[in-house]
Amino acid sequence: MKALPRNASEMLTQCSDIVDNWLERHERLFLSLASALFLLSAIGHSRVKELWLDELASMIVAGLPTPGAIWNALAHAIQQDPPGYHLLAHYLYRIFSSTPLVARAPAMAGYLLMSLSFYFLIRRHCPAIYAAAAFFLPGITFLRQWAWEARPYGLMLGVSALCLLFWDGASSGKRSALNRIGLAVTIALALSLHFFGMLLVGGLIVGEAGKWAIRKRLDLPAIAAIFIGASSFLLWVPLVRDDFAIMRPLYRDRVVLTDLFSIWNDTLTLAPLVLLIALLVGVCVVAGEMPRRRGTEGYFSFRERALLAVAGGFLLAPIAAFLQGRAATGVFYSKYVMLTVFGPVLLIPLLLAGFTSRSTVAGLCLFLAAASNDAIVSARGVADLFGKPPSTDSQMLRLQSLMPAADHDVVVASPFDYLPLYYNSQSPFRDQLVFLADPQKGLTYMENGTLDKMYEGIAGIYPVRVESYDDFARTHSHFYLVTVLSTTRDTPWLDKYLESISARERRLGQVGEFMVLDVALPDSH
After folding, report:
1. How far is it, in rounded angstroms, from Cα 110 to Cα 378?
2. Among the four residues 142, 348, 380, 509, which has the most C-beta atoms within 10 Å?
């Protein structure tokens, strides 16, 4: 392949240098604009997205009157989380109100904190243009969807990225004591938000191992700070023990090896990243920007190599989560190992900058790719600021119109749908909705009865109609059933159970993904 004419290569380099210099001189302006765009987009996305089951359960727990009540609810496995997010939301509700935007505000703040932390972390080691790209890189992966969820994940991401900033700073020799204090505190905060914040500790341990391999000595103060922060997990051991005792008998361990590869694929969204790297390498080769020299420490400094080790640790995080899922909890979902995304977010700018002698051409390509993706997502979010929020009431009225007897009980089969239909609607019809909970039947017919158990707990703290199936069947030989047609979710256990007892079902109609049935139980039931 012939190289571009020298003038074209110089023009490309000059253009990238101009962008890099502008970003360096106008750092505050760039960060202000990028942050404002994200917040507007996140608020827009939140405005048109109805609350789903896990968010609603979190809001119900956080809305309890006292911290003691919140702890008691978590101890009864209504949510399998430490209390950090719920306590924060609890006090936010006192100051403002328990609206979806307030409930999702911690996630938005956390995601923004993560983006800013990656910016400043990469800025320490690379030209400004790479740092600007790092601000947008998490949006290429699935992390963006957790930026407006009323759950602990977004805030955990922000605290964890800030922790990396402190960890890297502790090796700089500047304000080391303050950085180590920040390191311990942010680890403790991450662990107070989600139990799988422990993967942050794993990544840092790999980073410390990398530092030891390079310098042949342990960084004992940093290790002590990590240990002190990680020891805060002992505060949440009672919750882990109670959750495990309640929920573990209600699902069967189905974690298999193929899940590990699915998690990497779901979490990292590797295809766009691989194409991006290929594009960057191609541009750098054509433009003649590949490295011709190395620094006195090689392509990477000591601190950069330590960061690369941490990134490798995060990439291996799913293996640790997979092993604990096989050995103990039986739980292995992509959202629990979302910290593995920190691996490529660190690796891509560090490797590109290092292997191209800090070429701003490679940085410009990375910046344009990441920023353009962010612009597309943000544009939709900003447009949603002016859109019409969805209305569950209209859906409820359409469901009600399909039922001949207006005062009849209406059973919602899916646990994923009952609480959202009830909570997101103001229609009086919602009081006719009932969820039939039976954890053992859920275990038998779906190999998972945990959601039924969760509903039993919610019924004790929130005014929903949750009844035992057996009690309901003794007084209702006939009822209407709302079930789901979606192929993306498992068939509810109630549908399978009614089929097994040969219940008579007559289809009344369909509203969106919901199907309404008239159900008559057999006389012998």
Report:
1. 17
2. 348
Q: Identify whether the C-beta of residue 263 lies closer than 8 Å to the C-beta of residue 337.
A: yes
Nearest to 418, CA basis, from 93, 57, 34: 57
- How many Å apart are CA 145 and CA 343, to the nearest integer? 18
What stretches of 63-99 show up as alpha helix (H) in DSSP?
Answer: 67-75, 84-95
Rounded Cα gap, residues 508 and 515, in angstroms: 8
Q: How far apart are CA 351 and CA 364, in angstroms?
A: 14
The owner of tokens 């304000």 is 175
For residue 233, the tally of other CB atoms under 10 A from its CB is 18
Backbone angles phi, psi at 495, to 5 degrees: -60, -45
Residues 428-444 have pLDDT tens digits of 888 899 999 999 999 99
Which of 250, 351, 343, 339 has its CA nearest to residue 291? 351
Q: Are 515 and 481 in contact (CB under 8 A)?
A: no
By the 8 A CB rule, do 516 and 510 touch? yes
CA distance 487 to 497: 19
- Give residue 466's identity as a one-letter amino acid code: V
The number of C-alpha atoms within 13 Å of 60 and in the hemisphere containing its C-beta is: 26
Structure confidence at residue 521 (pLDDT): 92
Would you say 57 and 70 are in contact if contact means Cβ atoms under 8 Å apart?
no
Question: How many other CB atoms sit within 10 Å of the CB of residue 261?
Answer: 11
Q: Give residues with Cβ within 8 angstroms of 475, minimum separation 6.
A: none
Q: How far is CA 369 from CA 20, 280, 283, 446, 457, in A?
A: 15, 10, 13, 43, 46
Q: What number of residues does the chain have?
A: 525
CA distance 337 to 54: 17
Residue 427 and residue 342: Cα distance in Å, rounded? Answer: 44
| In the block, residue with structure tokens 């309901």 | 472
- What does the pLDDT read at residue 1? 44
Report the distance separating Cα 92 and Cα 106, nearest Å: 10
Closest CA to 133 of 373, 341, 368, 375: 368
Model confidence pLDDT, tens digit, residues 388-409: 777 777 788 888 888 887 678 8
The phi and psi torsions of 420 (rounded to 5 degrees) equal -60, -40
Helix H or strand E segment including 482: strand 478-484
Going edge to edge, which strands form the sheet with 478-484? 466-468, 433-437, 410-412, 478-484, 514-520, 504-511
- Residue-wise pLDDT for 287-326, tens only, equals 565 554 455 556 788 888 999 999 999 988 888 888 877 7
CA distance 180 to 183: 5
